[in-house]
Design brief:
The structure holds 2 protein chains of 2 kinds. Chain A is mainly alpha-helical. Chain A has one domain. Chain A contains 13 helices and 8 strands. In chain A, the strands form 4 sheets. Chain A has a two-stranded antiparallel ribbon. A two-stranded antiparallel ribbon of chain A has the order 3-6. Chain B has one domain. Helices cover 79% and strands 1% of the residues of chain B. Chain B is globular. The chains are: A mainly alpha, B mainly alpha.
Chain lengths: 462, 334
């Protein structure tokens, strides 16, 4: 590249921003749906199991309804996931060119899980009427296994971007040897994978429960609503304390593996012991302003001692520091804050349940559950912001900068604009469709039947 | 056969399955699009919807399989293709989103207006998506993708050959779909729909054949390497495809009730493998050979293991899904 020509540089810097925005947006959209793909099957199967075991009609009806909703969310998830795999080539071709041979291994394995999930999901969703009860239940069990396997593979690929290993580069920077097991079992796999799978169970648990909490607040207190609240809420509440433990371990590992990311998200300016933990605030080069300071806590959390030395940004080369530290810091705090609040919600519920075998009577409990779903999704987004923005400027930590990976193609801002429009329509329609399904269930009891795409419901037809 | 050649063969196997099953699903969208108004098109649309509903997502995964094998086993080819043909690829991605979402939403939305809007989205994008995929394949076959990537964003695929291949993709999907739907109509004992899709299978066969002949001429002038090998090493497969197509036409014209699907599939599979043989040993004729683009051996080993698992687990599961669907044990209207 001619050194005195600023235009290509400017163009690629602009491409970089557009490509990162588009990737972040499409990933943020898809990840909510992929949580449903990972954790909704288990939730449905629990309801299905209860229904079959106890002959509980309400539980069976819930499993049916949730599987119909899943038919919609899985379709949207399948296509938005496809967009992400296209974006690897459309936005980050140089990344794939250099490292596809190494980290592609994880996606090759994911392909199998996605395949099996799509197959058994179809059998389960469309098998309600003609397959016998337990055969139908067992046809759904592979969805649960493949959801976890798929999450493992995809998140292992992301973990590899944070802790790359298992490959040999030649002098030209080309991958000449690969150790697939090391790619899959990289140092970040052990905490990123369970963190994400638990996040999926929390998102699904609280999101589904929040739907029924809203219904109960509107006075629908039948058995269907009670079970619809209790089953997913229990799943979310079991996942939450484990998640806090895993997340705490992950944060310590990040401090060790990716000190720049940790310094960015905790806004640590100077390396040393006795680091203050700041809650909230604005990160500046003089430290955190307008925050609640807790002396020594940051050092203590990293190494269980106030003397623990934590790397500050002053020891990170200027061109290797993560951007937007305030954004990172607040995202991290918000994630931890929401997680803690959900833990509190669980403790409240567990206490009352232990005392009286019932959900707390006050409407404030239902109100809290009603917002917990959105809260879990926000925490999920925040976590991914910390992971991805915190890794910048690297796409492959220590090996390749995101600016080296981005495409030279023209029109990325245009494609980002188009993606925003299409996804806005997609998201809106999906929510409208799900709402109208739930309204029909409420009004019609049993689900609607349509004979043909444009014909009226079958009951009305001659 | 080298490891790289074996991985390329796996890529082709994935592409074959996608063309057969994914292609037929797109074809169903085309028949939905031109089925006429809500009343006239009601029965064919109902049949199409019943056939597609339980299987289209699983069929779609073959595309993911192809992408993943391409970027893992041949990363430089993946990058060269995506930095050159990003316009038709992005349009195909857009089409995939609109097709899938439109189809899924149409079933669940209330109100004729909303259904028709979703149906139109599904049906139009079912035509555009395979068209743009075909232009990508056509541009690769005609040697427009340089090994280093970053070929021209438009002149590489806005050429007679890529556009013809795009049209051929649409037509052969429609052909496969019509033949599959004939079988579905037979099974449902719906003689009228059987004849309906027989007529359409005939029409689509003629159109696809015409595009194929035109494509041969374009291949002759724009993709000499591929043309020469297609008419020598690839000739048996070309003939096989022609024979399958001709027998199928004869069966359709005589109104026989012989199984049609193997013939239709054979015609399409033979073309895909003919193309593969004609391109060999290039991934990007004539700038990037398979061995030049190949990932290191251990990566290829993982591809083989994954493929073996797919053969042991995925294919029987797909078989189960198709069998249940064919036995009407899966209901599209819950």
């Amino acid at each position: 590249m001619p050194p005195l020509d600023p235009l290509p540089l400017a163009a690629s810097a602009s491409n970089l921003l557009a490509a990162r925005e588009q990737m972040a947006f499409t990933l943020g959209f898809h990840i909510v749906l992929s949580c449903l793909g990972v954790a909704l099957p288990a939730t449905i199967l629990v309801a299905n199991y209860i229904g079959l075991k106890k002959g509980d009609e309400a539980a069976i009806e819930l499993a049916k309804r949730w599987s119909k909703a899943m038919a919609v969310t899985f379709a949207v998830g399948a296509v938005t996931g496809t967009v992400l795999s296209f974006e690897f080539g459309l936005l980050w071709p140089h990344f794939m060119d250099r490292f596809g041979a190494a980290f592609g291994v994880a996606f090759a394995i994911e392909g199998i899980f996605f395949f099996l999930e799509a197959i058994f999901l179809a059998i389960y969703i469309y098998g309600w009427k003609r397959l016998s009860g337990w055969a139908h239940f067992w046809s759904g069990v592979p969805m649960f296994v493949t959801g976890i396997g798929g999450a493992f593979s995809v998140v292992a690929a992301n973990a590899w971007m944070n802790q790359p290993q298992g490959f040999t580069l030649n002098a030209a920077g080309k991958v000449v040897d690969v150790e697939p097991l090391k790619v899959l079992w990289n140092p970040a796999t052990g905490y990123e994978v369970p963190h994400m799978i638990l996040a999926a169970y929390m998102v699904v648990g609280f999101l589904v429960a929040s739907v029924y909490a809203v219904g109960m607040l509107k006075g629908r207190r039948d058995r269907l609503h009670r079970l619809g609240l209790l089953i997913p809420l229990t799943i979310g509440l079991i996942a939450t304390p484990i998640q806090l433990f895993v997340g705490d371990t992950a944060a310590r590992a990040v401090a060790d593996h990716q000190p720049a990311k940790f310094a960015g998200m905790e806004c640590i300016q100077e390396t040393g012991g006795h680091q203050t933990e700041y809650v909230g605030g604005v990160c500046t080069s003089d430290g955190v302003k307008a925050a609640i300071p807790i002396p020594d806590l940051d050092s203590f959390l990293v190494g269980f001692s106030a003397d623990t030395k934590v790397t500050g940004l002053n020891d990170i080369p200027a061109d290797e520091r993560p951007p937007a530290n305030t954004f990172l810091h607040l995202s991290f705090d918000l994630m931890v804050g929401i997680g803690t609040a959900l833990l509190g919600l669980g403790a409240w519920f567990a206490w009352v349940w232990w005392k009286r075998r019932d959900i707390p009577k006050t409407p404030w409990f239902l109100r809290a559950v009603a917002v917990s779903g959105i809260g879990a999704i926000v925490a999920l987004w925040c976590g991914w912001i910390v992971t991805e923005v915190g890794r910048q400027p690297w796409i492959v930590q220590g090996y390749m900068r995101t600016s080296e990976a981005v495409t030279d193609a023209k029109g990325i801002w245009f494609s980002f604009g188009l993606v925003l429009l299409v996804y806005a329509a997609l998201g809106t329609t999906a929510i409208l469709v799900l709402r109208s399904m739930s309204r029909r269930w409420r009004e019609g009891g049993e689900s609607e039947e349509t004979g043909a795409p444009y014909s009226p419901p079958a009951e009305a037809a001659p | 056969m080298s490891k790289a050649d074996a991985a390329a063969a796996i890529l082709w196997v994935g592409a074959t399955f996608y063309a057969l099953f994914g292609g037929a699903d797109f074809g169903g969208g085309l028949w939905d699009l031109i089925a006429g108004g809500p009343e006239r098109g009601e029965r064919p649309r109902a049949l199409i919807q019943r056939s597609l509903t339980p299987v289209w997502e699983a069929n779609h995964v073959w595309l993911i399989f192809v992408l993943v094998v391409l970027w893992t086993a041949f990363p430089s080819a993946f990058s060269a293709i995506f930095t050159t043909l990003y316009v038709p690829i992005a349009l195909a991605a857009l089409g995939i989103v609109l097709r899938g979402a439109g189809f899924a939403f149409r079933k669940s939305i209330v109100g004729l207006q909303g259904r028709r809007a979703m149906g139109a989205t599904f049906a139009i994008s079912s035509v555009l998506t395979p068209f743009f995929m075909g232009t990508v394949v056509g541009a690769i076959a005609s040697g427009e993708v340089p090994a280093g990537g970053n070929g021209d964003a438009f002149s590489t695929w806005l050429q007679p050959l890529p556009l013809l291949i795009g049209a051929m993709f649409v037509a052969s999907g429609a052909y496969l779909s019509a033949v599959f739907l004939v079988g579905d109509a037979r099974r449902a004992g719906d003689a009228e729909m059987e004849r309906y899709f027989e007529r359409r299978a005939l029409g689509a066969a003629v159109v696809a054949g015409a595009f194929a002949v035109a494509g041969l001429f374009a291949l002759h002038s724009e993709a000499r390497y591929v043309f020469d090998r297609l008419t020598s090493q690839g000739l048996p497969l070309v003939i096989l495809s022609l024979v399958c197509g001709a027998v199928l036409l004869a069966v359709l014209l005589r109104g026989g009730r012989r199984p049609l699907r193997p013939l239709a599939a054979g015609a399409v599979v033979a073309v895909i493998w003919g193309w593969g043989v004609a391109q060999f040993p290039y991934l990007l004729p004539t700038s990037l050979r398979i061995d030049q683009a190949a990932a290191p051996d251990p990566t290829m080993t993982i591809i083989f293991i994954v493929f073996a698992i797919a053969a042991v687990l995925v294919l029987p599961s797909l078989g189960l899904l198709y069998t249940l669907a064919q036995k009407d044990l899966l209901e599209s209207e819950h």
